[in-house]
């Protein structure tokens, strides 16, 4: 048996340099070995930094997402947890079959590709409105004015929040999902907003029961599979999951993706000249900029061997999908952004039974937003030196706090040099 090298994962990523550019840190971890040891949130555990092992664990039923399914494992749900938090930790991403299959089947129906494709026009309209507002300013914070409000507006409308409540709802979600609120104190401060959101969603569910509409909450309320339905707590838990899993991730795809293009002017130029490269460009942004660093932890149901290392049953495994996406053995010239890359089997949306439910929506939003932004602004430049950009202190989700850009709208480029 091989002994796994020990690392301190938390410490590896806590410096501002590592947050700004995690590529060398991931390279170092991959070099240390296919299986590493580290202390994680769930106690002593293992870390997988390479592509092959990450994918193989993601499709291996010997690993559980729900700790209760591991011998001696306990639920993440605790008696002292506020009810609202218990709803979050009981969401389907932390469940295994058959519970997971049941919940996923019920929501999948409400989340069909056709339903998502139908949103194209509306996503384009919201994008144009946001750009109309941005165009009036010489410096735009792309996060605040574009990347954040776009997915938030889309999801509020998708859920079927009535028009008069939408502004309040968006403000409330922005507070609950405040990316700066990662400390325990910030969590406590945020708690009243969570309660308000919980009450808001329960009222929305009741409204859509009485007045069905052409929206996701109505579809979830009506979703039925073999006489089975989601009960009210499951419904709220599902809506929370959609809000949490779908929001900051998409925000980061747009923010990180645009920054990557600005920092690789040859790729930006190529995309401007060949707009039909947008689909492969988005896949490459997903791979290279890694909006999500790691998936939910997996737990070994039995003793397992990975690359010669014994993983005792019950162990927690951290799967670094961001590192897998940069693995040279799976992606030639992995540390280069190449918008024409193909094949591009990145694992940014995960793999296997928990593969991202919202992937078509995230792709649609990026496919509409990024070309519209490029078209509106023939020049996009960082308004601050790159080393001044601030990254959020969250290893799981990689994103910027702000992205100040100096922009020149189409028709206003005279006198400025090309990017
Ligand atoms: C760029 C944007 C996104 C990225 C990178 C992303 C990434 C991921 C990843 C990696 C997983 C797998 C988690 C695991 O295996 O532990 C996942 C699951 C999930 N995502 Fe996304 N996501 C994005 C957008 C969205 C959107 C827009 C929604 C919905 C509105 C969404 C809803 C979900 C749900 C419900 C799951 C759980 C699926 C399951 O457990 O079966 N995601 N996502």
TrEMBL record:
Database matches in PROSITE patterns: CYTOCHROME_P450
Entry keyword NAD: no
Pfam families: p450
Heme as UniProt keyword: yes
Signal peptide residues on this chain, from the entry's feature table: none
One annotated GO molecular function: monooxygenase activity
Domain of life: Bacteria
Keywords per UniProt: Heme, Iron, Metal-binding, Monooxygenase, Oxidoreductase
Family: Belongs to the cytochrome P450 family.
Protein name: Cytochrome P450
């Amino acid at each position: 048996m091989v002994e796994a090298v020990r690392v301190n994962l938390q410490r590896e990523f806590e410096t501002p340099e590592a947050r700004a550019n995690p590529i060398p840190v991931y390279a170092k971890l991959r070099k240390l070995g296919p299986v590493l040891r580290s202390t994680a949130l769930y106690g002593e555990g293992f870390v997988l930094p390479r592509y092959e092992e990450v994918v193989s664990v993601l499709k291996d039923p010997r690993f559980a997402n729900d700790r209760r399914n591991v011998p001696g494992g306990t639920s993440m749900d605790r008696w002292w947890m506020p009810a609202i938090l218990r709803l979050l930790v009981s969401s389907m991403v932390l469940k295994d079959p058959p519970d997971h299959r049941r919940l996923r089947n019920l929501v999948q129906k409400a989340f069909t590709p056709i339903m998502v494709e139908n949103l194209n026009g509306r996503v384009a309209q919201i994008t144009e409105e946001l750009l109309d507002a941005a165009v009036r300013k010489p410096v735009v914070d792309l996060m605040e004015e574009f990347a954040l409000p776009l997915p938030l507006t889309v999801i509020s409308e998708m859920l079927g929040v009535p028009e008069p409540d939408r502004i309040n709802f968006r403000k409330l979600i922005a507070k609950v999902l405040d990316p700066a609120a990662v400390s325990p104190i910030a969590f406590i401060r945020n708690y009243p907003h969570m309660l308000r959101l919980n009450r808001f969603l329960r009222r929305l569910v009741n409204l859509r029961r009485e007045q069905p509409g052409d929206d996701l909450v109505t579809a979830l309320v009506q979703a039925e599979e073999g006489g089975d339905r989601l009960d009210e707590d499951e419904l709220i838990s599902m809506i929370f999951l959609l809000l949490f899993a779908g929001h900051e991730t998409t925000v980061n795809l747009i923010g990180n993706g645009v920054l990557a293009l600005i920092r690789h002017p040859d790729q930006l130029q190529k995309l401007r000249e060949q707009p039909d490269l947008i689909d492969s460009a988005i896949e490459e942004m997903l791979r290279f900029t890694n909006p999500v660093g790691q998936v939910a932890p997996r737990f070994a149901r039995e003793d397992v061997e990975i690359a010669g290392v014994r993983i005792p049953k019950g162990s927690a495994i951290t799967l670094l999908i961001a590192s897998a996406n940069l693995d040279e053995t799976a992606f030639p010239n992995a540390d280069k952004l190449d918008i024409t890359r193909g094949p591009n089997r990145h694992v940014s949306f995960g793999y296997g039974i928990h593969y991202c439910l919202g992937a078509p929506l995230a792709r649609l939003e990026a496919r509409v937003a990024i070309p519209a932004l490029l078209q509106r602004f023939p020049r996009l430049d960082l308004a601050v030196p790159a080393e001044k950009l601030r990254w959020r202190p969250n290893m799981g989700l990689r994103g910027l706090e702000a992205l100040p850009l100096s922009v020149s709208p189409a028709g206003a480029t005279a006198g400025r040099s090309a990017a």
